[in-house]
Structure formats: structure tokens, C-alpha cells
Design goal:
- By secondary structure, the chain is an alpha+beta fold.
- The chain has one domain.
- Helices cover about 15% and strands about 20% of the residues.
- The protein has 1 helix and 4 strands; from the N terminus they run ββββα.
- It has a 4-stranded antiparallel β-sheet with strand order 1-2-3-4.
- Strand 3 and strand 4 form a beta hairpin.
- The longest helix is centred in the C-terminal third of the chain and has 10 residues.
- The chain is globular.
- The N and C termini lie far apart (about 30 Å).
Length: about 60
């Protein structure tokens, strides 16, 4: 199994709690890949992307 997902066409989403301001938000691409969940800073969409396994991302979301 590979964790190198092509996220060039990812459809990014952010939390409904973020509001319209866009400040200090995380974005994730929930359907970018079945093996990773990419996460980025909404203020720098061209910047680095962190990737998590779906299980790790689900655990993070449950915890927060």
C-alpha cells in the first residue's frame, strides 16, 4: 500500500465552525484518497500538506 496520494485535484473543506473569516483554519480533503487524509493551513493553501491515515484523522476529530 502506498501513502503517496495525488492531491493535486483535491476538493478541500473546512469546519462549519470556521465561519466566513477564514482565519486560523485547517482544511482537509476528505475524498482525496482512500489511504490518506491530507490537511493544510487555509491561510497558505500552496504551503505544506500533512497527511494522516483515515484512522488517525478520525481519532483526532473525535478527540477535539
Amino acid at each position: 500500500m502506498t501513502t503517496n496520494a495525488d492531491i493535486s485535484r483535491a476538493e478541500w473543506a473546512k469546519s462549519s465552525y470556521s465561519g466566513d473569516g477564514g482565519d486560523n483554519c485547517l482544511e482537509w480533503a476528505p475524498s482525496a484518497s482512500p489511504v490518506v487524509v491530507p490537511v493544510r493551513d487555509s491561510k497558505t493553501p500552496g504551503g505544506p500538506v500533512l497527511t494522516f491515515s483515515p484512522a488517525a484523522w478520525a481519532a483526532f476529530v473525535r478527540a477535539v
